[in-house]
Design a protein that fits this description.
- With 319 residues, the chain is an alpha/beta fold.
- It has 2 domains: 268 residues, Metallo-beta-lactamase, Chain A (4-Layer Sandwich), CATH 3.60.15.10; 40 residues, no CATH class.
- It is built from 10 helices and 21 strands.
- The strands form 5 sheets. Strands 7-6-5-4-3-1-20-21 form an 8-stranded mixed β-sheet. Strands 8-9-10-15-16-17-19 form a 7-stranded mixed β-sheet, with helices on one face.
- Helix 1 links the parallel strand 4 and strand 5.
- Helix 9 runs parallel beside helix 10.
- The radius of gyration is 22 Å and the shape is globular.
- The two termini are 14 Å apart.
- The relative contact order is 0.14.
- Bound molecules: zinc ion (ZN).
- Zinc ion binds next to helix 2.
């Protein structure tokens, strides 16, 4: 599973960072999921290999503009590109109302169906590849995290067993690997008996804005990655009085350490953070503060940074 960041800025865009958006890509196929859709997310998508036709569902964490103002434009462009297949939107109920009003006002007609799920009343959402649950967070408006869990892991063929039973390597092995039962020398071989699942089912939590990371304690059990906002360092949060809305790097890193999360990716940085280390505040300050509290695998997101969660649950940056 890959995570591709489309925007990593909080509140407003900067020259280096667009507002929030993130794509999740399963290992195979062209299908993908979008979490949050800040303004100009569709422009960011144009700089990637993502196709609007492969987009399965959009998950919105909360109603603030830096997380959803890109929706009407993206939906309209999907229509212009000839999308016909339904698109799922999992979001606060207000988003559905807002889009209906926007479409009515602009006399827009989408030639595909929007299938809405109100996150406040959602038990779980799933398709053939993932199960998704929502976790309530703490922010100025209702905000949620989404926990994506894959439904299947790669099955591995027990070749030693096949060899021991005298089944020669060849097309029969391929069919068994695909889940097909086969006949060999008059005997029926059940695929299931020759497959094993050595890899864990991977889970990724993507948080919305949140000043209380402890709310993710239960969801973090068995999770492999937490993507969470770290809008400020402690010092800057103190200065701007933002403690009751957002998370500092220290707060989220301490939580990830307590929850024993193996991989942590910080994002949603205040626009005041600079990429030039000569200037202050420097984006590296966020990393320094987080590292003081968390010894796991830590990354700071950047626009267009792509991370791969391998089959064993290790996250690494690939682009
Ligand atoms: Zn935000």
């Amino acid at each position: 599973m890959d995570i591709l960041f489309l925007g990593t800025s909080a509140g407003g865009p900067t020259r280096q960072r667009n507002v929030t958006g993130l794509a999740l890509l399963p290992d195979q196929g062209s299908e993908w999921y979008l979490v949050d859709c800040g303004e100009a997310t569709q422009h960011q998508i144009l700089h990637t290999s993502l196709s609007i036709h492969g987009l399965q569902a959009i998950f919105i964490t909360h109603v603030h503009g830096d997380h959803c103002y890109g929706l009407p434009g993206l939906l309209a462009s999907a229509a212009m590109h000839g999308r016909k297949t339904p698109l799922h939107i999992i979001a606060p109920a207000g988003i559905q109302h807002w889009l209906q009003v926007t479409h009515a006002m602009s006399e827009s007609f989408l030639p595909y169906e929007l299938v809405f799920t109100d996150v406040e009343n959602m038990d779980a959402w799933h398709d053939h590849a993932v199960n998704v649950s929502a976790i309530k967070l703490s922010h100025r408006v209702p905000s949620h995290a989404y926990r994506f869990s894959e439904k299947h892991t790669e099955a591995v063929l027990d070749t030693a067993k096949l060899q021991a039973e005298g089944v020669p390597a060849g097309p029969l092995w391929g069919r068994l690997k695909k889940g097909e039962d086969v006949i060999h020398e008059g005997k029926k071989l059940i695929s299931h008996d020759y497959l094993h699942q050595p890899y864990p089912l991977r889970s990724i939590i993507v948080g919305g804005d949140n000043d209380a990371p402890g709310l993710l304690q239960e969801a973090s059990q068995q999770a492999h990655v937490l993507v969470h906002e770290a809008t400020y360092t402690e010092e800057v949060a103190e200065k701007v009085g933002a403690r009751v809305q957002h998370c500092s790097a220290a707060a989220v890193a301490s939580f990830a350490a307590t929850a024993a999360l193996p991989n942590l990716v910080l994002t949603h940085f205040s626009a005041r953070y600079q990429h030039d280390s000569e200037r202050s505040p420097f984006i590296g300050d966020i990393e320094t503060e987080a590292r003081a509290h968390y010894q796991g695998n830590l990354f700071l997101a950047e626009d267009f940074a792509r991370f791969r969660l391998d089959k064993t649950g290790v996250l690494s940056r690939i682009a």
